[in-house]
Amino acid sequence: MNHPFAITLDVGTSRANHTGAWRTERPVYVSLRPPCAEGCPAGEDVREWLRDAEDGETGYERAWRRIMETNPFPAVMGRICYHPCESACNRGSLDEAVGINAVERFLGDEALRHRWSVTAVRPPSGRRALVVGAGPAGLSAAYHLARLGHDVTVADAAPEPGGMMRYGIPAYRLPRDVLDAEIERIVGLGVTLRLDSPVADLEAELHDGRFDAAFLAVGAQLGRRTYLPAGSAARVLDAVELLHDVSEGDRPLLGRRVAVYGGGNTAMDAARTVRRLGAEDAVVVYRRTRDRMPAHPSEVAEAEAEGVRFTWLSTVTDVDDDGLTIERMELDENGFPQPTGTFEHLAADSLVLALGQDTDLRFLDGMAGLESVDGVLSVDDTLMTGRPGLFAGGDMVPDVRSATYAVGHGRRAAASIDTWLRGELPGSDSPGEPATYDRLHTWYYTDAPRSHRPVLEAARRASTFDEVVRGLDAETALDEARRCLSCGTCFACDNCFGMCPDDAVIKTDDPAAPYVIDLDYCKGCGICAAECPAGAITMVREED
Amino acid sequence: MSESRLYQIGTFGVGNRLLTPEDQTVQAGSDRPRSITRGHRACRGCGEALGARFVLDSAVRAAGRDLVTVNATGCLEVFSSPYPESAWQVPWLHSLFGNAPAVASGMAAGLKALGRETRVVGQAGDGGTVDIGFACLSGMFERDDDVLFVCYDNQGYMNTGVQRSGATPPAARTATTSELGDPPGARFGQGKFVPLIAMAHDIPYVATASVADLHDLERKVGRAMQLHGARYLHVLVPCPLGWAADSADTVRLARLATESGMFPLFEAERGEITAVTPIRRQVPVDDYLRLQGRYAHLFGEHPRPDLVRRIQAAADRNITRFGLRGAAS
Ligand SMILES: Cc1cc2nc3c(=O)[nH]c(=O)nc-3n(C[C@H](O)[C@H](O)[C@H](O)COP(=O)(O)OP(=O)(O)OC[C@H]3O[C@@H](n4cnc5c(N)ncnc54)[C@H](O)[C@@H]3O)c2cc1C
Ligand SMILES: Cc1ncc(C[n+]2csc(CCOP(=O)(O)OP(=O)(O)O)c2C)c(N)n1
Ligand code: SF4
Ligand code: SF4
Ligand SMILES: [Mg+2]
């Protein structure tokens, strides 16, 4: 080869120099478990469906389908879920949590508008499963079992399906056409629904119907009573019964002044319903203080806005012709209410008891292997009862009582039943490393205040059962979805790709792994990991 | 860019799949020119390697690839071209330490004589720009030669072992400004801020930029390339070796320098400031200084809060002087 004077080597590219040899640490892409998904009792992959929704029009259906992988009730959940996902959301530490629930409702409503539906994921298995109870737990289990190819029958004592979603939660929070439409979609998968069919003898039912497995979800239907001296003349009724009657179109006569005894969500629903039935005065009597009320703060606020009054630190000791006697309480150092011996009279035409519900387990009498503690049925991690093949969930097992937990139980039980029917032992999956707030590089995120759902004006709320909380419009829903920080996983922001001084990050066409590190050149400086907004890159020491 | 307000990271990062193609950076594209390709020998986490790719890639894109560049001696030149390898994927010429602006002027004149439209970019470190190359640079400005000259400011003569330059900030330790002196580190009241001197030449365009704000940097290169005549871009490029900082902190340091007011981001046309990039989340200079070993003597066993206060005062002065608190943009 002919070289110019004093030149002995051919010119070449620096690519011949593999600087990867300098590395002592290497960047590794990770996907951590975000707090929202961790917090969702239904097991929704919130971050992932928000990401689909972030694409707008083209992503809504994908987002909805992703929700439907775990939860068949997006439109219902988007209205009544107490959204623990939002309480856990990392964005809450930055400004305000992402309005996950509002976006979920938007997607649920989009699906109803477009009549999107789902199909089974597996061919018919030929196995039969019985579900007792068509509340959120039972319907969720039926949905997942049907999608997994099993032949499902749901038996419910009531004339309509839905459980407490229909007979407990008032229509101003959950319009019945929304509930009907989402249940219809489940039935549309080929689920057999047997209504007006209380199961009195489960053993016989299982045998006669030749069922291979069963899921029990009868909820907690019995309103808890309290001892009130005999001779109580004023009307005393039970909140669950009241709400049940109202949901069937009755308007019970309660009088002008109604007291509601209890501090949970049921008490709020009862008091707000009572106002809508025409009571001028609805007063909630609760033995502790506002901050110790089990009711969700938003429900308390909504009740207040509708004119519901509250009498804190009080218990009902007696009921007479024109009202109640209440005893004032004070909290001891442990926060427990203690009687003070001071009594007051509260004028009231009727008293509604909202003191919690119990489960009626009598239909299980005589079944071997079952165990109950504190009135609820014991289950293991897979939701199997003491009897093999018999699973249970929802309000009748020891866990938080909410529709969302019930849906989650239904899904988990369906998965357990599915493995069990295939002759395998159900196992529980292990969660990954959490995407904590301190892993995020929050400087990068734009300032984006949360959007709030519009509400019906108070005047109309006090007299009608029209839905109180309205949905977000398309634009606001999209903005809200885009507030998600994508905690703990890559959202393809290109920071690693753009900021590598060594051009050692390669973009791929694979949306599941948008980048790979070119280890031939990566020197391991760590800029990519330091500048990743989502904390999706970890530096790992090289082995010597 | 108001409609991107809610797009997760908006334009604060490199890319964002939710932005329109016009709003994407050059660096976000797989097809970026890679003016300096992989395999170069810059230190781990080198801000200069990063800054040079940022600047050159957008300039190459703006010039439709018709661009040549001349490079003074310094780290950028040394790490990119150890004989016989080159990391450059643009026509690139190494001049001397002190004459890059003059060589660039000559190239521009020659190309013009040939009737070519080819654009010329001159590059140097802060030593090559503000010290030894300064006479040539001022001449290039004063003649309004058609060159974009870029200074990669890492605040010292890094290639020869971290000696002080005219751009080394007060109190910083270098090989020639010992932390054992009194006062320790580089002297207060010395040094110069060349962007303002460049502005005094009334040239078409002067801007400052940093490797922590890519959209801002690329927009400025784009603006500079729209114009002809003498243009000057001064880019802050943290140097993990010379600043005794963690290699992962390069971009973070550049961000803290601007967010604390230590390094103002602005643009000027014909001697007048036309825009400043406001501080987004102001931080005390402490946050910036503490990450760097070259300031360790301000915080160690014998801390010098008095000197930190003087540095803070200088940052505060920048904030007022350039109107970095938001409204001024
Ligand atoms: C007033 C009220 C408001 C509430 N508001 C909310 C809310 O806003 N958000 C929220 O998340 N949760 C709310 N909850 C809680 C939530 O409704 C329950 O946790 C949830 O419905 C429990 O679901 P489940 O499927 O276990 O039982 P349920 O919903 O109670 O359904 C059980 C079903 O089983 C049927 N059944 C019972 N016994 C038999 C039998 N022997 N044979 C056949 N069928 C039988 C019943 O008819 C019923 O349909 C509320 C509850 C009440 C009472
Ligand atoms: C005339 C001359 N004097 C000294 C040197 C040695 N020298 C080479 S690079 C350099 C410092 C470069 O500093 P700077 O321009 O800031 O670039 P950096 O390496 O910091 O990027 C020096 C002093 C030289 N090459 N030529
Ligand atoms: S910001 Fe997004 S990913 Fe993070 S917790 Fe909230 S919803 Fe989940
Ligand atoms: S000494 Fe500094 S400027 Fe030079 S290659 Fe290393 S990090 Fe880059
Ligand atoms: Mg230098």
Overview of the structural elements:
The complex is a heterodimer of chains A (544) and B (329). Chain A has 544 residues and is an alpha/beta fold. Among the domains of chain A are: 5-31 and 490-541, 2-Layer Sandwich (Alpha-Beta Plaits); 128-222 and 368-421, FAD/NAD(P)-binding domain; 225-357, FAD/NAD(P)-binding domain, CATH 3.50.50.60. Helices cover 28% and strands 17% of the residues of chain A. Chain A is built from 18 helices and 22 strands. Chain A has helices at residues 35-39, 46-53, 60-68, 74-80, 84-88, 100-114, 136-147, 164-167, 176-187, 202-208, 239-247, 265-276, 297-305, 403-421, 458-461, 474-481, 495-499, 527-531; strands at residues 12-13, 25-29, 128-132, 151-155, 192-194, 213-216, 222-223, 235-238, 257-261, 281-285, 309-311, 314-320, 323-331, 337-347, 350-353, 357-358, 372-373, 376-377, 390-392, 505-507, 515-517, 537-541. Chain A has a 5-stranded parallel β-sheet, with helices on one face. A 5-stranded parallel β-sheet of chain A has the order 8-15-9-10-11. In chain A, β17 (372-373) and β18 (376-377) form a beta hairpin. Chain A is globular, with a radius of gyration of 28 Å. The two termini of chain A are 41 Å apart. The mean pLDDT of chain A is 94. By secondary structure, chain B is an alpha/beta fold. Chain B has one domain: Thiamin diphosphate (ThDP)-binding fold, Pyr/PP domains (Rossmann fold, 3-Layer(aba) Sandwich). Helices cover 31% and strands 13% of the residues of chain B. Chain B contains 10 helices and 9 strands. Chain B has an 8-stranded mixed β-sheet with strand order 3-1-4-5-7-6-8-9, sandwiched between helices. The longest helix of chain B has 18 residues, at 305-322. The radius of gyration of chain B is 19 Å and the shape is globular. In chain B, 57% of the residues are buried. Chains A and B meet through β1, α17 and α18 of A and α1, β2 and α8 of B. β1 of chain A pairs parallel with β2 of chain B. The structure holds flavin-adenine dinucleotide (FAD), thiamine diphosphate (TPP), iron/sulfur cluster (2 copies) and magnesium ion (MG). Residues 48, 73-76, 97-98, 124-128, 154, 156-160, 165 of chain B line the site of thiamine diphosphate (TPP).
